[in-house]
What we know:
The chain is mainly alpha-helical. Helix content is about 85%, strand content about 0%.
Amino acid sequence: MEVDILSRYTREFVMIYVALILITWLFNVFATLIDLWTGLDKAHAIGEPIKSNLLRRTINKIGDYWKVQAFALMIDTFGSLFWCYPFASMAAGLGIIAIEWKSVIENLKAKKAAAAQLLSVIAQIMSAKSKEDALKVLQTIQPDISTKAARQE
C-alpha cells in the first residue's frame, strides 16, 4: 500500500515537473515568434525590405535560448534532489521572455514613430503650394524621388 502511494506521488510529481519545463520552453518560442511578428510589422511600417535572414535570425535565437534552457534543465535535474520545482528553468524562461518583451516594445515604438512621421510628411505635402515644394518634402525622405520625377516630365 505504501509503495502504491509513493509511486503515485512520484509519478504526479514528475508529470508536473516536466509539464512546467515544457510550458516554459513553449512560452519562450511563442515570445520569440511574437517578436518576429512585431519586427515584420515594424519593417512594413517604415518601408524596410524584409529579407530571409530575419527568419534565420529568429531560428538561431530560438536555438540559443534552448541552449540556455538546457543548462537550466541540468541545474533543475540536480536540484530536484533538494527542491520540488524547476526554479532554474522558470527563472531562465522569465529572463528570456523579458528580453523578448523589451524587443517587442521597441518594435512597437519604432512602428508608432514611423507612422507619426508619415502623417507629418503627408501634412507637409498637402500644404505645399506647388509641385516643386511637394517634391522638396519628398526629397527629405528619399533623395532620389526628385530625380525620378524630373525624368518623368
